[in-house]
Amino acid sequence: MKRFNLALRLLRRDGRSGELTLLVLALLIAVAGTSTISLFADRLQRTLSVQVAEFLAGDLVLAGSQAIDDSWRARAADLGLTQSQTTEFSSVLLENGQMLLAAIKAVGQSYPLRGILKTLEVEEGEEVTVRQGPEPGTAWVEKRILSALQLGLGDLLTVGEKPLRVTRILTYEPDKRGDFYSFSPRVVIHQADLQATGVIQPGSHVHYFYQFIGAEPQLKAFKQWLKPQLNPSQRILDIHEDRPELGSALQRAERYLGLSSIVVVLIAGVAIAMAAGRYTERHFNAAALFRCLGCRQGEILWLYTLQFLLLGALASAAGCLLGWLGQLGLFYVLKPLLPQQPADPGLLAVVFGFVTGMAILLGFALPPLLRLREVSPLRVLRRELEPLPAKAWLVYGLAIAVMSALIGRYSNDWQMTASVIGTGLLSLLVLGLLIACALSLLRPLLPRLGVIWRFGVQGLLRNRRASVSQILAFSITLAAMSLSFTVRNDLIDQWQQQLPERAPNYFALNIIPAQQPAFALDLSGAGMEGSAFYPVVRGRLVAINAEPVQKRVSKDSQGEAATQRDLSLTWAAAIPADNTLTAGEIWPQNEAGWVSVERKLADNLNIKVGDELQFTIGSEQVSARVANLRSLEWDTMKPNFYMIFSPGTLDGFPFTYLTSFYLPDAGKDLLNQLLKTYPAITVLDVDQVLKQFKTILMQLTQAIDLLLYFALAAGFAVLFAAVYATLDDRIRQAALMRTLGAKRGWLASTHLVEFGFLGALAGTMAAILQQVILYVFYSRVMHIPYRLSWLSGAALLAIGVVSVGLAGYWGVREVLNRSPMRVLRRL
Amino acid sequence: MRTHSEQGNTPIIETRNLAKSVQTLEGELHILSSVDLIIKSGESIAIVGESGSGKTTLLSLLAGLDTPSRGSVVIKGRDITRMSEDGRAALRGELVGFVFQSFQLLPALTALENVMLPLELIGDPEAEAAARVLLERVGLGRRLSHTPRQLSGGEQQRVALARAFVAGPAILFADEPTGNLDSKTGAHVIDLLFELNQERHTTLVLVTHDASLAARCGRMIRLDAGSMV
Ligand SMILES: Nc1ncnc2c1ncn2[C@@H]1O[C@H](COP(=O)(O)OP(=O)(O)O)[C@@H](O)[C@H]1O
Ligand SMILES: [Mg+2]
């Protein structure tokens, strides 16, 4: 307690004299930065997942081919979860002598739990948003049902044995799923009418969906409870599996948020290390005096560690508060883009901010602090006695341990963490050596330089060790800043490529071959850009090397999903341009009997090049040998196929064409005309889904931009603070030079040269470091192709020279204007 | 406050065959060679010699701030050359006060806080009261809240004097206490030093190259190139 009081008093005295300002500033940036980001990321993620949950019409969805046990629903009710249910099946509708296969969906009273439905109350009217399905006795249908069955609003439509009145046209449902090519037009009815349709008999093909919403812990508990009890036909839908295009966007954004906070931690850590180094050096005299006055080594260390802990706790608490405000600010700025009801900020994230602050402080500040223990008491008599520099392994080891813990926590992927840290460590080592070499190369140049340049460069060489670690520190800061900038740009580019401005928003299917040329002509005549036309035969994969495919599927897998329904099979002379071969080769030209399989499905079902696949098409069997495997981006909205056959393999089977095209909002009339001309063609509207997807990407982009500015601002603040931390020595030198008669302008020039060089070296090293990290990060984490960027390297060099040069120049300049005597006395 | 009654008779510091040498690039450098010295309790002794003769080195060995290459230093019957560094620190805290040529005040602390420091480090609750009394005594009662930067050299050295005496040390080591002061200010500081020394019966070891100052001490030893002459 006595020690604690003493530490507190010493701390207060230091604080009063401004000795702590730099350290506190660095800590505040670190904690405020990380807690802003972790609070923001946590909150944004929960907000978006609510929004994304709309695509499932619930937070958690259980799908299966049987109705679930009442006890499961009771369990959900016990946990306080709200639930709803939908039942989906196909049924042939027969009206006015027309026949149509429709996808019927019976919905409960509380459907949809998440998201909305959009409908038309009159045929050419305005879209009306509703939050509930149809009343009992009524049905809502997609427009093409009406045209195909020659019905109008208000007419009766018989589903199975139950006549229902058609009261609205359905234009949007949140949880539309399945692959786009197998869609039959939708009819939505009330759950209460389901029995009366008489369609559901034992053995009929029905999908049951149960949606649940509620608080996160309860949902988690329910999911945990549910999982072991599921039978093979049941699965829990997950946004990452069910909507891969959204899932991967969200995942990348989450990783970016994680990366940003690591960048801020790293930048702030460097600043803390430098500020702590300066603090330590300025306390050598005090430590020597304490030793002289009878303090034991351990006591001195404890006294200063206590002060640091106190300082860390105070600064971390203040930083958390700033972080809270920062996060509120970010959400305020993003408000117009976000859903009405953003999730509440998580208290846990605040705690994490605090813990992060303390961890960074200890990780980066403890090694220099340890030097205070080693100060010799003899220093009171001989000022020049300095303790040995902190051990390099300790300095970097501790910092690396802290960084690993943080990266590991964000990524939850220790293998990746190890590879990032390993690469970082190796780069540090190589960079350190490079810098030392670069400095050595400068020395022989000295005699050839003009006097200003010579003095400037000599300043750099005077304390080689300090120069190396300063350059290293600046290059880490610069590299970290540029990293978040570059990754942000590439991420957003990637998204834009994935969803170009005029991404296809309509699919046309069931185009009979006889009409295809005319339809294609009409499309291009109306200025609608489309993709290629793909022939489609519906068929099911039944056996691999004569082994029934069911034996190979594992529960909940993509393979299971793909083998339980008909696939769209197509053929082509070559594989599509945006697919890439991963194994095997393209088939010999014009040779029938080959198939190309999508890689993930192949992995899932353990299909190898050369395997014999057997398909059922209608009542017939076809087999083909696997020529190659290919990977493709599922998260584009273009037609994609699991199976592509060589031309000739599927000859003789009836087929239709499929295509996708872009139709601007203003072109809906054209679409109606087309539909009238080609009544048999099914046009599928994915515009709504696309728009929603784009909105989410835009929100993520904005959020990420804000974070980027934040990280950059923190980086520059820290860079300036760090330059200031190195000034003591240089200021003393400058003051001495002035007493020896050096002119102000001359001194200013030598400093500009010295810091300019420092910045140039740091910029160059940062560019190297950045490229190495980008390479690892892209290929291992983001899975985006890497390319060397000369431009960003040059930019880093320039930024290094300008920012470090100016910061150093300004720091020293202020001193040059004062009398040298005052400067010397002050130090 | 401790008093030191056994003054004048018992030896308080005793060195035997004390030597210090260091390795330099040009080989071994002998800074001090075989110094035998007995300092009695309550005595005041001046160590004089030219610059570079080894005075500061001797002082640092006597005070246990450094360790000798050979020989021993015994303080109050305890051989400090055999103690650990922490043991010597404890002994310093208990018995020793210092005054330095360059004052060694902590710039972030006020005069009062600088003087309180030795007592605060041993957890004395009366630190502030004792420090006020001593600052009053050295004539700085009105400058308590000033930091070293706001004080003149003479004033700073008076604060250092107060700090040296505040814990009631048995021995005071002073290394050229007037070296950074002009002669008038220096004389004033020295007067104060001797007054306080007298009042508190402290043993004084004073390093100086000023003969007149050395003459005020009870005894004088001269160093020349590391040897006593
Ligand atoms: N650690 C050391 N390394 C090398 N030389 C030293 C060391 N310490 C002292 N010296 C030298 O020993 C000599 C005596 O130093 P010092 O005791 O400071 O003398 P004084 O105080 O009498 O001026 C000087 O020449 C000094 O340069
Ligand atoms: Mg000396």
TrEMBL record, chain A:
Residues 260-374, 707-820 form the ABC3 transporter permease C-terminal domain. It holds the Pfam family FtsX. It is found in: Cell membrane. Keywords: Cell membrane, Membrane, Transmembrane, Transmembrane helix. The keyword Transmembrane applies. The chain crosses the membrane at residues 20-41, 256-279, 300-326, 346-370, 390-408, 420-446, 706-727, 752-778, 790-812. It is a multi-pass membrane protein. Its main location: membrane. This is ABC transporter permease. It comes from Methylomonas subterranea.
TrEMBL record, chain B:
It comes from the Bacteria. Keywords: ATP-binding, Nucleotide-binding, Transport. GO terms for molecular function: ATP binding. Coiled coil: none annotated. PROSITE patterns: ABC_TRANSPORTER_1, ABC_TRANSPORTER_2. Residues 13-229 form the ABC transporter domain. InterPro entries: AAA+_ATPase, ABC_transporter-like_ATP-bd, ABC_transporter-like_CS, MacB-like_ATP-bd, P-loop_NTPase. The keyword ATP-binding applies. PANTHER family: ABC TRANSPORTER ATP-BINDING PROTEIN MG467-RELATED, LIPOPROTEIN-RELEASING SYSTEM ATP-BINDING PROTEIN LOLD. Belongs to the ABC transporter superfamily. This is ABC transporter ATP-binding protein. It comes from Methylomonas subterranea.
